[in-house]
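hiii so um. not sure if this is the right channel but i have a protein structure encoded as tokens and i wanna go backwards to a sequence. like what aa goes where. can anyone help
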């Protein structure tokens, strides 16, 4: 790293050797954020927010608008999946955005 720059530490380093990462899945239960879908041209973005603690394992997930959003417009964000990252799985995007990537997984 260049002199004076700070090397970032992987969040995984804060977990113990026997701990598994926590996976959030709002498929069956969750708040209003579970209704935000993927779009290749999103109008929202997701950000980790620390409210109750500064422990990197216990952040809140918050959505923020990335542009002016008209009342009644669908809220969406980019899932940032990488096509091919899960072997044997394919998930096609149907967002309809002009810059649609076509494939999510």
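sure thing!! here u go:
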């Amino acid at each position: 790293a260049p002199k004076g720059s700070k090397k970032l530490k992987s969040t995984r380093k804060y977990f113990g050797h026997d701990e598994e990462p926590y996976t959030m899945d709002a498929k069956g239960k969750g708040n209003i954020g579970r209704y935000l879908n993927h779009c290749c041209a999103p109008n929202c973005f997701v950000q980790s927010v620390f409210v109750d603690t500064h422990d990197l394992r216990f952040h809140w997930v918050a959505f923020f608008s990335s542009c002016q959003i008209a009342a009644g417009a669908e809220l969406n964000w980019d899932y940032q999946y990488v096509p091919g990252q899960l072997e044997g799985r394919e998930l096609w995007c149907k967002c309809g955005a002009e810059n649609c990537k076509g494939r999510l997984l």
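oh and The chain has a mean pLDDT of 84.
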